[in-house]
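Holo prediction — beta-D-glucopyranose.
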Amino acid sequence: MKYAELISRLTLEEKAALLSGKGNFTSKEIKRLGIPGITFSDGPHGLRKQAGAADHLGLNPSLPATCYPTAAAVANSWDVALGEALGEHLGIECVAQRVNMLLGPGLNIKRSPLCGRAFEYFSEDPILAGKMAAAYIRGIQSKGVSACPKHFAANSQETLRMSSDSVVDERTLREIYLTAFEIAVKEGRPKAIMSAYNKINGVYANEDKHLLRDILRDEWGFDGMVVTDWGGSDDHVAGVKAGSHIEMPAPGPCSDLLLVEAVRNGELEETVLDERLDEYLNVVFSITIAEDAPTEFDTEAHHEFAKKVAAESIVLLKNEDGILPLPHGARVGLIGNFVRKPRYQGAGSSIVNPTKLDTALECLNACPEIEVVASYEPDFLQSDGKPTEIDTINMKLLARNVEVVLLFLGLTEDAESEGMDRRHMALKRNQLDLFRKIFSVNHNVVVILSGGSAMELPFADQCKAIVHGYLGGQAGAAAMTDVLLGRVTPSGKLAESWPVRYEDTPAFRYFPGAEKTSEYREGPFIGYRYYDTAKIPVRFPFGFGLSYTTFAYSDLRVTENGATFSIKNTGKVPGAEIAQVYVGKRDGKIFRPTKELKGFTKVFLNPGEEKTLTVPLDDKAFRYFNVKTGKWEFEEGAYEVYVAASSEDIKLTGAVEVVGTDAPDPYKGFSLPSYRAGTVADVPAEEFAVLLGRPIPKAKWDRARPLERNDTISQLCYAKSRAARFVFRRIEAMKRKSDVSGKPDLNIYAIYNMPFRGIAKLMGPMVDLNMVDSILEIVNGRFWGGLIHLISAWRRKGKAEKAFERALADAGKEKG
Ligand code: BGC
């Protein structure tokens, strides 16, 4: 142990105290031994350091920081170097704001377009998500601070996020949900990782030794610290045993006391506690920020960089008759409220207070190349959350008199947020009406989309062009202006598939699961892996994006180690192309998607220029996880290697022979027809149980049994106590109000989905777990007994805490 001597000078109380937060975003220091506290901050696309009262839901404003495009946008750039540069910018802002650890990037796999946090995550594909996350991590950490990739793992929904059990077969877990983290850890070497709220196959991620030690540390070589998600620790002792380090935010001494008691009663060996401390201190000492480090950053330069990132990430989805770029002198109409009130980030803990904010209105008005006529209406939503009846008379007049209409549509703020999932994939009806009315007087409609995830686009065949900026950050509007005018050639490609309808998605029947569980019945067939294999038509395929120029692919050579080919810019303007390399195996015994992304590259070319490129095929290119041997194995034989412009646009095909590992077929004799065909939209329970290798756990809450610590507040509806059911009805009414308000009340969603233990874990030192148990007694109908226990638990807590604090204060005397 590197810090054995230092650790020997800590008392048991001090050791325990170091492994939980001090405040909402700080850890504890021990001055007498020179152990510093550290400061954490969200988040993935910009800092959220709150100067005043801190919270984990992004409710109170934070210090101004650059709001970069969200991960869902940046992933469309497929540009690892850009991701690393973005990380560097984040790192510089961390140093200036004295933040030692940035809580990001978020790299959960987009299992369904409806995940409320889809805007915070990169992709449906683990290679793309992992490579981008690793780049962010390298960039952030190059400035001497720590990244904290999250949420580890299988955390693909917000509904009941703190209690839900992700039921997923091991092969899918390894190949899809863990591979992204594996790449982030091996190639980014993060100093920290955040464990997810949810359970995975019955065990809380934060208490899963197989995940946190066997896989993360022993297999992947992670040597940093595991941070719980905020309020995500269920049993701190179990967490520390399993390999988790710090419990956040600040549960108070009651949590530290649990560690002390566990050591005293032999439940937790002190050597294990010491080991965790050693790992923890190793990180803490490596991320201190020098006192004389700069306290400011160049806000203008960072804004300019945010614009560059946004421009590289914009995706041109349709461009008929060369309507874009806008010709010089074009008379253009701007329609829609996002023209002056951009949607540029999502809600929740990732919310950034931007240093400045560009709007399409200002940016397009400042362009001498075009003549702008603007018209916009009130928000698509009224203050009561009802869709606005849009009076289109003026708009129609305007649309009739211009050559091109730029119509700004997309997801409204209420549609996507941490703490809740989207209910459907449709745009608001008033937006569709608006399109129809504008289209009835002018067919030259360019739709400009904002939003962090896929949407249904019923007008896609009618409009002339569609450009998607996702959530482009504070300079997104300026970047969009440059693309519309052709100052920048669009080069982004979709990091997720865009289904035609929500019903077409593979997890449609399973997402977000029932009360206790979320069954990942679709297995590894998510996103393009499904559409491609089951031959389901999509609106726009994974990896798709247009340009103002054209590219020709040629001369493919393939070996086991890589694909080498040439790309030529055959158009008239400079531009960048993203080439994707997929691998498939037609004659395999082991079922698998038709093809899977294994590498990619982005190249910038002037007109007529040609370059030869090599995309490496690494250890992940041909492997599959064998549930029988519990290892990565290789199936012997020929593999197809496709070089493609999108998952549906294959430009070149090669083949390669791979030597196998001769592992037994784990599925021999098993009846898995849906998985063998990839038609996983309606997998029968029995078949899923075969894939899982065990019976499917019960999905519904047991309404008859008393409520327990890990049951959620939303289960109060089943409480024996009438008063508790009354409280439930009040909370339910507040949630319903929030649902339709147009501005989600994140507090209500957090309370609704919170397990009872959260009362102790998130309310700081006021309540401990024994008090929670007494509250549960009351809820379960034993009012007087519960009340008496509550009072005595509160007294015991007070005494124990005083003794604990005395012990901490005396630590110096005891240990010197
Ligand atoms: C989120 C994390 C975030 C943390 C701190 C949690 O609710 O899940 O992503 O980093 O809060 O704000």
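READOUT: The pocket of beta-D-glucopyranose is lined by residues 42-43, 56, 103, 150, 229-230, 349 (CB under 6 Å).
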